[in-house]
Design a protein that fits this description.
heterodimer; A: about 475 residues; alpha+beta; Arc Repressor Mutant, subunit A; three-stranded antiparallel beta sheet; 15 helices; B: about 475 residues; Amidase signature (AS) enzymes; eleven-stranded mixed beta sheet; ATP-binding (chain A); protein biosynthesis (chain A)
Chain lengths: ~475, ~475
């Protein structure tokens, strides 16, 4: 390809700590405007922030889960600028010494596995929110002011919208997995800015980087990237260049629109925050955090491959969320058949959940119920198809599989004598099928099995039916 | 007997014995306020009714023999840069002319817990930026000892209120010299404690690592009574330490090693200041102290280092005063930018603006590395010098101020000192009169960090001897 797209992402993630970063106010989304506030998060004169250990711990967790190194000596800095949602005239952030440096997110691209590296992760406070009314007034809600954030900055190592999407999905899965954030874009707990430009690989010419903001979903990020790719290439082909500017994605118009030109570099006059003492992170603390963390998705995936002999794909699916992986392993405690359990969870269970946009937590039945059902199927008391019907019932009613089987009389008919009678009956009614069979039309067998199943309301043991049917046909 | 002539600890004794009431005590001070305020202008806001009501409540408790705090019934004034709930806090600025805070500073909570009565908020240089109290939006304060002189600053209102018997005790703040200079000019006792002895929560910040809340009293015992009531650990200020100050201290100086910083003594100073200081050295010797010269070489840089750090801090600390949520907002503006510009242009005085501009310049571009960080490194050298001195000496002494009180109108030549170095190193220091009745000079006793009791004991011994 002639043109190469270069994409770097900056992601802000709100940490779901109990309190805000510098005070004891609750860190809860929403609430009546300006009710989750105190003199500290409002930046009242004289109020002094105190850094919450929990916020720092969450940031360290995020760093560890993304393979970053932790800066054990760090500090908080002031980023000076004026805006009405910013209560102190500066944002407390980190400049030279971010809490985490380096790290990566692995993505599975069409060309194979690729590690997208991180430059840094730093911790900072969120700002308030401006609410613009229809009458043209701006109202300010400071409930969000002081909510702990991490900003994750990637290297410009993604080369397509698809890769950016995979990166975002991987990042979100990890952060949700370790429970540092709920990563809800619609509530703003995950926000993403895109930096993009194009390199003409023949000439080495590159366009000036554009920043795109206001991306409300991963798919709008992809659309914005694709729109910008096109715009950059068109300009490049005309022999022109892009401007150094910030654009926003317009969901309605399906295009990016210029927000502001970036003249030179903005001077935030970073300086250490004199209210917050230098931070030292001990080895012991990092170890304690590590040991408190759940097994990470990639570690778990590797373990599943090794321990359960699953294919990389199956392991990936079964570790895609923490809940699914736990459900899988719990089910295995009640039934000794890895293949059966993984097939059923990956198949019917996950498909149904996806259809309903639900999660494992929404299931009306437990892992033991699923195992019980599979044990019934395995014992041959009901057949596979009946098992699926029972599972559908379990989804809807939450009833125990034994109860459903009993209530609906679904126990499989495996008694050969009984089945022989039924087979005879069906054959008597379908002379034409016998003729077809004799003429070598294999389809006839399938038709006859169907008729037998219909007659037994699906309860006939298919293997036995097949055996008897073939015997009888050959005899006639 | 005029109650307001008594020292605070004397009032306290008489109140507890039932010889006087808190109501009478407060009333005698309010009488002074009503008589003198028009001239002295020590207060920006005071509340006669509330103070008297509070006094009656204390009297009721006294009568019922209820348990009372150490400040019970005493009239206390507080510098107007310390946040008081539901009570106007202006910082001496138009910017906060009508600011009624929704919370109390930790020291205010402590004073209230200990049954002290806050009779009013005292005048100060705007946002503590000055040494004269003349830059207050609410007019200059006059020196009660001589109304043609300024009272020193920035806590000039606090020192003047104690000197004029408008309050018995006062709480002020010191970032570079703001308690010690007015204490010296008004001839009262002032203590700038160790950084971290008193919670700064609720002190309107100018420079986070230098600001210190401190106290004023008529004598050393008064000042230490006030200090002991407000010191100690506060979870809202993590720089505070869990150390309490003993209230009943006795003078003690014998056998202590006292250093005289030679760089300080080679500064130009008023002749009578030098003479009185020489006499003080002799006094310490006769009290059994060992007095020797000591070198603290890097204090010669303290003034410029102080300016760089303070102004850099000010530039961001003052940014919250933007006219959006509280404080002054310009009447006419078109855009958000204009709201900021006009509110800050109209709301701040000259000195505040000068320091914001200077600090903004210092942090712009790459200058942050060039000035701020370098200043922090030199600050470390100054701290090392003091640590070195305190490894050999128990105390250091200097004149508090190298001048006698300056004229209110014209600025006469002022001799500069190294008082800001004490803040740079976070040390405790006490200022007390040294030259007898009419001399208007004061002595500064400096201790090592958290040796506040030691400077008070030395001051008690010295004060007892020169009386």
């Amino acid at each position: 390809m002639e043109y190469k797209t270069v994409i770097g992402l900056e992601i802000h993630v709100e940490l779901m700590t109990k309190t805000k970063i510098f005070c004891d106010c609750t860190n809860e989304f929403g609430g009546e405007a300006n009710t989750h506030c105190c003199p500290i998060c409002l930046g009242m004169p004289g109020a002094i922030p105190h850094l919450s250990k929990e916020s720092l711990e969450y940031a360290i967790k995020a760093g560890l889960s993304l393979h970053s190194s932790i800066n054990q000596k760090t500090k908080m800095d002031r980023k000076n600028y004026f805006y009405s949602d910013l209560v102190k005239g500066y944002q407390v952030s980190q400049d030279e010494l971010p809490i985490c440096e380096g790290g990566y997110v692995s993505i599975e691209t069409q060309e194979g596995k690729k590690d997208v590296h991180l430059i840094r992760i730093h911790i900072e406070e969120d700002t308030g929110k401006s609410v613009h009314t229809e009458t043209g007034d701006t109202l300010l809600d400071y409930n969000r002011a002081g909510v702990p954030l991490i900003e994750i900055v990637s290297e410009p190592e993604m080369n397509s919208g698809e890769e950016a999407k995979l990166f975002l999905e991987g990042l979100r899965a990890t952060l949700k997995y370790i429970e540092v954030s709920d990563c809800k874009m619609e509530e703003g707990s995950l926000r993403c800015d895109v930096n993009i430009n194009i390199v003409d690989e023949k000439t080495g010419k590159r366009t000036t980087i554009t920043e795109v903001k206001n991306l409300n979903s991963f798919s709008s990020a992809v659309k914005a990237i694709e729109y910008e790719e096109k715009r950059h290439i068109e300009l490049l082909e005309k022999g022109e260049d892009t401007q150094k500017e910030t654009r926003r994605w317009d969901e309605v118009e399906n295009k990016t629109i210029i927000m502001r030109q970036k003249g030179g570099t903005e001077d935030y006059r970073f300086a250490v925050d004199g209210d917050i003492l230098p931070i030292e992170v001990s080895d012991e603390w990092i170890e304690a955090i590590k040991s408190s963390m759940p097994e990470l998705p990639h570690d778990k995936r590797d373990r599943f491959i090794k321990e359960y002999k699953l294919s990389p794909y199956d392991a990936e699916v079964l570790t895609s969320s923490k809940e699914v992986s736990i459900f899988f392993e719990e089910t295995l405690q009640y039934i000794d058949d890895i293949k059966l359990v993984s097939n059923w969870i990956m198949g019917d269970v996950l498909r149904r959940l996806n259809e309903e946009d639900a999660s494992v937590a929404d299931l009306k039945f437990t892992s033991k119920d699923l195992a019980d059902l599979l044990n019934i199927v395995k014992s041959g008391k009901i057949n596979n198809n009946t098992g699926k019907k029972v599972l559908r019932d379990m989804f809807e009613t939450g009833k125990k599989p034994e109860t459903i089987v009993k209530e609906k009389g679904l126990i499989q008919i495996s008694d050969e004598g009984e089945l022989e009678n039924i087979v005879e009956e069906i054959l008597d009614k379908n002379e034409q099928s016998i003729i077809d069979f004799k003429n070598g039309k294999d389809r006839a067998v399938g038709f006859l099995v169907g008729q037998i199943m219909k007659a037994t309301r699906g309860k006939a043991n298919p293997q036995i039916v097949n055996k008897i049917l073939v015997e009888k046909l050959n005899k006639r | 007997m005029d109650i307001s002539d008594l020292k605070a600890w004397e009032m306290r004794e008489k109140l507890l014995k039932g010889e006087i009431s808190s109501f009478e005590t407060i009333k005698s001070h309010i009488k002074n306020i009503e008589e003198k305020e028009k001239v002295i202008n020590a207060f920006i806001t005071f509340d006669k009714e509330k103070s008297l009501e509070a006094a009656q409540e204390i009297d009721r408790k006294l009568k019922n023999k209820e348990k009372l705090g150490i400040l019970a019934g005493l009239p206390i004034s507080v510098k107007d840069n310390i946040i008081t709930k539901d009570f106007r806090t202006t910082c001496g600025s138009k910017m906060l002319e009508n600011f009624i805070p929704p919370y109390d500073a930790s020291v205010i909570e402590k004073i209230k817990d200990k049954d002290g009565i806050i009779i009013g908020k005292t005048n100060m240089d705007e946002f503590s930026m000055g040494e004269t109290t003349k830059s207050s939006y609410f007019g200059a304060t006059k020196n009660p000892l001589d109304i043609t002189k300024n009272p020193g600053g920035s806590s000039g209102g606090s020192a003047a209120s104690v000197a004029s018997r408008e309050a018995s005790l006062s709480v002020g703040s010191d970032t570079g010299n703001s308690i010690r200079k007015p204490a010296a000019y008004c001839q009262v006792v002032g203590i700038k404690p160790t950084y971290g002895l008193v919670s700064r929560y609720g002190l309107i910040t100018i420079s986070n690592s230098l600001d210190t809340i401190g106290v004023f009293g008529r004598d050393v015992r008064d000042a230490s009574l006030m200090l002991s009531a407000i010191s100690g650990r506060d979870p809202l200020d993590i720089t505070t330490k869990d150390t309490s100050l003993n209230v009943d201290l006795e003078g003690e100086i014998k056998g202590l090693k006292i250093g005289i910083p030679k760089e300080w003594m080679s500064l130009e100073m008023d002749t009578s200041v030098r003479e009185d200081f020489q006499k003080s050295i002799e006094e310490f010797k006769s009290l059994g102290a060992l007095v020797e010269e000591v070198s603290i070489p890097n204090i010669v840089h303290s003034e410029i280092i102080y300016k760089i750090i303070v102004c850099s801090d000010i530039s961001s600390n003052m940014a919250r005063f933007d006219g959006v949520r509280y404080g002054f907002r310009a009447k006419e503006y078109e855009t958000l930018d204009e709201l900021y510009k006009l509110s800050r242009t109209e709301g701040f005085g000259e000195e505040v603006k000068r320091r914001i501009l200077f600090g903004t310049y210092l942090l712009s571009g790459h200058r942050g590395d060039e000035y701020y960080k370098k200043a922090q490194r030199v600050r470390t050298l100054i701290i090392d010098d003091f640590d070195n001195a305190f490894s050999k000496f128990d105390l250091l002494i200097t004149p508090t101020d190298l001048n006698k009180p300056a004229n209110l109108k014209e600025d006469t030549k002022q001799y500069n000192d190294y008082n800001a170095s004490i803040n740079l190193a976070g040390l405790p220091s006490i200022s007390l009169p040294m030259g007898g009745k009419n001399s208007q000079t004061s002595l500064q006793i400096i201790g090592d960090r958290f040796k506040d009791e030691m400077i008070i004991k030395a001051a008690l011994a010295f004060e007892g001897a020169v009386k």
